[in-house]
């Protein structure tokens, strides 16, 4: 059983998938920082100095009871909250990752454009239907000539 697991784990697809997951996690951290630290502060300023990470609704107050100025204060007081601002940040992060993935796949597919297949090296004799060289002017099987396109047997 250990040999089977080792054979499975060492297959190329599994290693490729592991590398993809590791790079994806790193990319996710970069995108989360882009959203939280670069994009959302200017958006919050444009919308009246709103900090999206501090948008929440208190379901049950903690000790001491609210109102709470920030999500951190509410959590430290033990309040039960719905953190819809963090949810908005995650939605924006997802959209950025989806677009980045879309453009990556689109670019890779463009780079992988398949070359047209090479021209055939053989053709079919129209008289006996044998496969012959493309350069042949006479069929080696039925001796028909291809210049006249009429069956001449001889």
Tally the beta strands: 4
Task: Quote the average pLDDT.
Answer: 83
Number of domains: 2
DSSP helix fraction: 40-55%
Fold topology:
Layout (H helix, E strand, L loop, with lengths): L1 H8 L2 H35 L10 E4 L10 H6 L3 E3 L1 H28 L10 E3 L6 E3 L21
Antiparallel strand pairs: 1-2, 3-4
Helix pairs in contact: 2-4
Task: Give your account of this protein's structure.
With 154 residues, this protein is mainly α. The chain has 2 domains: 84 residues, Orthogonal Bundle (Non-ribosomal Peptide Synthetase Peptidyl Carrier Protein, Chain A); 37 residues. It contains 4 helices and 4 strands. Strands 1-2 form a two-stranded antiparallel ribbon. The chain is elongated and about 105 Å long. 5% of the residues are buried.
Which key phrases capture this entry?
two-stranded antiparallel ribbon; 2 domains; Non-ribosomal Peptide Synthetase Peptidyl Carrier Protein, Chain A; 154 residues; single chain
